[in-house]
Each structure stands twice: as structure tokens, then as C-alpha cells.
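yo, Alpha-ketoacid dehydrogenase subunit beta is done. seq:
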Amino acid sequence: MDFSYIDAIHAALNDSLRDDDRVFLYGQDIGKFGGAFKATKGLQDLYPGRVLDAPISEDAMAGVAMGAALEGMRPVLEMQFADFSTIALNQIVNHAATHFYRTGVPVPMTVRLPSGGTPGSGPFHSQSLEAIYASFPGLVVVTPATVADAYQMLVESIQLEDPVIFCEHKFLYRWLKSSTLQGDGLPIGKARITRAGKHATVVTYSAMVHEAVRAAEMLYDEGGWEIEVVDLRSIKPIDTDTVIASVARTGRLLAVGEAFPWGGVTAEIVSRVAADAFHLLDAPPARLNARDTPIPYHPKLWADHRPTPQTIAASLRNLLKY
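structure:
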């Protein structure tokens, strides 16, 4: 049996509900309807009273989840789209993120954000907001790129004492599949070498891991270039040690992300490597993001807006020529 990325999320939610009576799910239309992407389909029947439909108010949803967490529950909040979570920004970053620092009382809540673009989704349903949340101390920000990580990291997120922003990529939901939900056991905060190489390092996360691997395969086929691909897996905490160790092997760095270029994860990676590992570089570190415009509706424009294997390969060619 093959498991899809959305199957992994469904299984993680089911297993967490089964194994811990404190866990409950809360979100818009997640009950009988099963959620916008059917991640919770059938769970309300299995766990009556613990899969709850929420009003159309992300601010209220986050407030309820935080209050429940403070009272000893383990809420898992589903935002229909990551973009809508900005309505709850005050609850998440000003209250949940700071509460333990202010009081010593943890807020073990998980906020699931269906993130990233899909063809035809446009500017209100395609954004990648991980860097915004990572800017605030007190939040854990998780960005799984594989089926096994989607399962294991969601289970781990629900068990954490900290509030977690779980960024699951919509583009991976149904086409990414695996024969198992069991991964290599890496914890949140530890990056993975997805593809080993020696000529350049690509550091990325979420759906861009797969685009980077395709770009690496293109360069190997055309010139024997061996590109190392590092999957960050989580961006808060971020595994700088694995990134720098990779750059030490290759001497070249390209940071790739689907989010907008201003600031963000790729800028953070380049900054850290430039500050802490400048002596290891044989070329200026580079980064590649989506274009600095709202995300277009038209599928062809959308395909040109985000990094692709072709644009990643082009950036790597420039890096390798230096």
C-alpha cells in the first residue's frame, strides 16, 4: 500500500487522537465534511466530541485553542489555508508564543497551515508564511518535505510543550507517495542530506526539496555535477551545523525557497553561512525565491513565479562557473 502526504497527516491525527485523550482537532468544516483537503475525513465518527467544527473566525479559533492548551489539552488547529492564519497573528505571536516566557506555563498547541502554491490558487490561497512565524521567539516552525516526515513530525509536534506552526505543502498532498510512514527518526530541528554531492550545496525545505533534487539530476546528466541537497525539515529551530558541514564539503551554496524573496529563510541561511563559514566558500552564496509579486492565478504564470528545476539548475550553473 502506498501512502500519500495527506494520508500521512490523516494517520498522524488519528494516531494522536487514539493515543492521547487530551488531543482534539478544531477547524472550519473539519467534522463531517473532513476539512478543505479531507485531512480529517472520518475522524469525527471515530472520536465523537473531539473533532470540532469552528466558526469562520481564525482569531477566535486560535484563542480557543490557546485557552484549551493552558487548561491541559492538546489542540490541533486546522487553518483552511496558511494565508488565513494572518487573521490570528495576534493570538499566535503575541500570546501563545510569549506565554511560557511570561508565566512559565506552556502552550502545547499545534497550528496546521496548508501552505504553498498550486496551479490556479492565486494570491489568497498560495502563500508560504513560515518565515513570518519563525521571526517570533517561542514558536516551533516545521516544514516536512516527505511522507514519513509529514507523519512523524506531526505526531512529534502534537507532543511538544511549545506552540508549533506545522507547514504542510498543498502541492505534495496527493502526488507525493511512499510505501511506508516510517522514516529515519530524525527529530525536529535536525536537517537531512537528501542527496549527497561534492560540487555545490542546495539548502531548501518543503516542496522545493523535490524541485532541487530534479535540478540536481539534470546537472548530473548533463555534466556529471554532483549537487548536495539539504532538507532543513524545520526552520525554527534551524540546523546550521548540517548546512555548514555541507558547504565545507562543496564550497558553494544556493538557498532555495518558495516564499517571497524579501528576508525569509533563504536570506537567513545565506547570512549564517556568510557570517560563520565565509572561509569555506569558493563562490559568493546565492539564493533563489519566488518572484516579488503577489502570486498569480494563471497556471502558466504561477509556474513562472516560483522556483522550478529549470531555474534552480540555471542558478547552480552560474554558481559552478564562478
